[in-house]
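In line with agreed milestones, the collection of sequences with tokenised folds has grown. One record among many is set out beneath this paragraph:
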Amino acid sequence: MIEVGIVGGGPAGAYCAYCLTKNGLYPVVFDHSHPREKPCGGIISPITQKFFPFLKKLPIEHVRRKTAYFISPLGRKILIRIRNGEIACVSRLKFDQFLLELAISGGAEMIREKVVDLKKCGRFWKIKTTKGIYPVKKLVGADGISSVVRAKVTAPLKSTDRGFCYGYFVEGLENENIVIHFLPHRKGYIWVSPRINVSSIGIGCAEISYSKGIKRELDAFINRHYPNIRIKSKWAALIPNIKNKKTFSTPIAGKTWVLIGDAAGHVNPISGEGILYALLSGELAAQAISENDLLMFEMLWREAYGLNLQLCIGLRNLIYKRPITELFCDYLRIQSIIGF
């Protein structure tokens, strides 16, 4: 019988596993695909590094910047200087591998099999993979926006609480600055995230229904600003983007299960940042599991960052209105800070 089974080996699942090993628990992580080059910017904000100081000295290749450009919907380009810290841009393949290795070196076990089903059997769970069935006492769902675990323990995220992003992994942006370009016609932005080898450039919008034409918009941006880059591959992905505060009222913990990271919908509703909440939720879930009170996770995450997520839902509609976004960019310029 497995004491703790974690479905998903991304940042949330891997960091939860690592935290558990520090408390003398040795979970089993189920994931057939991680580590992988996830379609995202791989931007680690200064505030994330403040919460998790080990990120300031990552032992993997990465790019650091003390400045970033914000482009307003009207096209004003504003240089933002980071007063306290730096922004790190990482390959998600390297970053996720780093976190997994932390967990495994601490004593966690990795089963590289795809989870296809779950079944509650009294006080334990049966995790069914493509190769076998594993009984588990405590279950952690860290398997992303299309979580198999979430579908079994509560309601899946609604389509209205999902966003869409599209982009490319490219060569030729290694020496460029970070760029965040707020879009004039939709709630979203284009990002440029320079990396050591293959950089990320993409576009994201808060609502799937408004995603029509984003490829054309991104291509036009690239042709105008970076015509000489070399595209290595393209990607498209769904991301959590909670728009209804009631979604956060749905329980994400039970007596024998918890949901963390993207599976919980814990992504910043304005910026789309997920790494911070993945690590925070993984750490707090590990605390609740270590104290043998998984329901305590509900209290922990709400106290730690629940209000922040709720406020961001309300602020998003304001920030993505053109006049407000212009004022927001002015605020960033005047304060010379980044609150990504």
